[in-house]
Amino acid sequence: MSQSPGHVVVAPDKFKGSLSAAEVAAHVARGLGPGVTVVTLPVADGGDGTVEAVVAAGFTRVEIQVAGPTGEPVRAAYAWREAARGEPGPTAVVELAEASGLRVLPRRGDGPGFAPLTATTRGTGELVADALRRGARRIVLGLGGSASTDGGTGMMRALGVRFLDAEGAELPEGGAALRELDRIDTSGTVPLEGVEFVVACDVDNPLLGPYGAAAVYGPQKGAGPEEVELLERALARLAAVATHTHGLAGAVEHDGVVRSMGVAGMPGAGAAGGTGFAALAFLRAAFRPGIEYLLDLLGFDRRLDGARLVITGEGALDEQTLRGKAPAGVASAAAKAGVPVVAVCGRCDLGEEELNAAGITAAYPLTAVEPDPAVCLAEAGPLLERLAETVARERL
Q: Is residue 158 a contact partner of residue 100, using CB atoms and an 8 Å limit?
């Protein structure tokens, strides 16, 4: 290994089901050895693990009790940073999966206790409300891993919005109840003036239609074909009422169904069971590519100054990686600074040309040193250290 000047930036995403992004970074740094100056920056793309990654990068973890997706109390956290120079106030990073995700569903037998018609995003709204009470002036919403298809109405309920039927009664929680939506009352909404909302998300699905929230993601949350159809109509009703009462121009209702136009048809409106729609419609949120925005938030460019190599990675390098996942975002940002990038991973399904096109010089999979996937999963940490030793020999 040469002793050329410059540090190594280790900026991986999590190895899902095995190691957090921070754990991956720590094992890689250890494997590179004491002779290498390492800067670790665990990253995420707005989905599962985002709060953990930004806390590892220096944000403060704030944990409170909120309503889980089926109403049961859960402990959930968001990340907090006091105002940096030039910023109008503190920033909070709220990850929907923390409070309203599949991972916090109560267990039922050997699997999660799906509640496709009644699951709610209220807990996510309670995290947002807590951050607002603390004085947040920018709230970053990471949308991914949702257990609900409620159009983000649970989140908005926690912020004071009321969803009413024709008799003026408040509707029950969950997506299915929105079939009876007649009126949206925002008079009790908590003060939002001067607060910037940003959605960090790489999902571009609209709210409705064959590529919408119910059709694409409903089955992942336990919805059968009839329930998917019911949820589609419920979300269409939400879009129709919001369009009529809140000036969301452009959505068109036909035969009781709002077609994918206007806010409902915007890329990302279908994210997290339609929570993207609520963020657009009620919070006037700006959508940003998840990994690109979070790298900017974490000051990744500053870490590249003087670096000689970036090591990124995730559990599997595959076609999804090329569609804006964390390693591709890291590689793109590093390329602009002229810093070469290699990746560590559990397995690699990409060829050399695909890797190079994404800005990744080479991939180092765990399967190269341990062919048994079960062993790779169980012993990912020590195996990563062995891979990092190889990277140090070959690249430094």
A: no
Exposure of 12 by Cβ count < 10 A (0-12 exposed, 13-18 middle, 19+ buried)? buried
Q: Which residues contact 378 (CB under 8 A, 6 or more apart)?
A: none
| Tokens at 325, concatenated | 């996942």
Which string of DSSP letters, residue by residue, matches 135-160? T-SEEEEE--SB---STTHHHHHHTT
Other CB atoms within 10 A of residue 82 CB? 11
**Is 202:289 a contact under the CB 8 Å cutoff?**
yes
Residue 35, Cβ density class (10 Å: 0-12 exposed, 13-18 middle, ≥19 buried): exposed
Domains of the chain: 7-43+306-395 (3.40.50.10350), 50-290 (3.90.1510.10)
The answer to whether 128 touches 186, Cβ cutoff 8 Å, is no
Q: Alpha-carbon distance 56 to 132, whole Å?
A: 22
Q: How many Å apart are CA 197 and CA 140, to the nearest integer? A: 6
Q: Please give the order of strands across the beta sheet that includes 362-365.
A: 38-40, 7-10, 307-317, 341-348, 362-365
Rounded Cα–Cα distance for residues 75 and 89 (Å): 26
Residue 100: both structure tokens together: 């309203």
Radius of gyration of the chain (CA): 22
- Are 36 and 6 in contact by the 8 Å Cβ rule? The answer is no
Instruction: Determine what percent of the chain falls in helix, strand and coil, rounding each to the nearest 5.
Output: 40, 20, 40
The answer to whether 310 and 338 are in contact (CB under 8 A) is no
Paired strand residues for 65:
75
- Which H or E element spans position 59? none
* Concatenated DSSP letters of 196-263: EEEEE------SSSTTSIIIIIGGGGT--HHHHHHHHHHHHHHHHHHHHHH--TT--EETTEE-S-GG
pTM attached to this predicted model? 0.90
pLDDT tens for each residue of 310-363: 999 999 999 988 888 899 999 999 999 999 999 999 999 999 999 999 999 999
Model pLDDT, residue 246? 63
